[in-house]
Amino acid sequence: MSPVPAEPDLVALVGSRLCHDLISPLGAIGNGVELISMTGAAGGPEIEMIAQSVAAANARIRFFRLAFGRATDQPVGRGEIVSMLSEYGRDGRTRYLWQPEGEQPRRLVKLALLAVLCIEPALPRGGEIRVSTAEGRWTVRGEARQTRNDPGLWAHLDDNGTDALSPAQVQFALLPREARAAGRSVGWALDDTSAEIRF
């Protein structure tokens, strides 16, 4: 009997499709704003606000494309990730540090970014989120003066289903599922000043 082919990951395909389709119009808006600024026909805070909003939206789409899109072993360059995180955090109170050197498999970058999304709600007043690797294990650690300690939410990282999760919390269900598909397990720790996820 021939093996049954694996079903496509519809969630990831939908995520990739949405991000792909939104990138082009956002890019067109950004180009339009740039052309208006170059002609001098209009300017001022309104155009600057539109330009900043487009840049922020582009950064989020790039982030979501990696976090929610299709996971493969295709490498992602360090420069691309650092640039994306810099733009992603530009207007916020959280600083993002990407420490792994060189290219990394998209599958592991996806896990790291899902972990970042899990840690963000624990830092409601901002802080620092650092991604690092050592001996093949990845650590995503957030630090702040005060964290929001919600162990019930974080218990979903133990693969406890999707009950009571809101759309804004979907990463807590996706991370253990994606980690399992990559042959990894998720560990976590949460206290008054830090939140950490390991895989």
UniProtKB/TrEMBL annotation:
Signal peptide: none annotated. GO terms for molecular function: transferase activity. The keyword Ion transport does not apply. Keywords: Transferase. Residues 79-193 form the Histidine phosphotransferase ChpT C-terminal domain. Coiled coil: none annotated. This is Histidine phosphotransferase. It comes from Paenirhodobacter enshiensis.
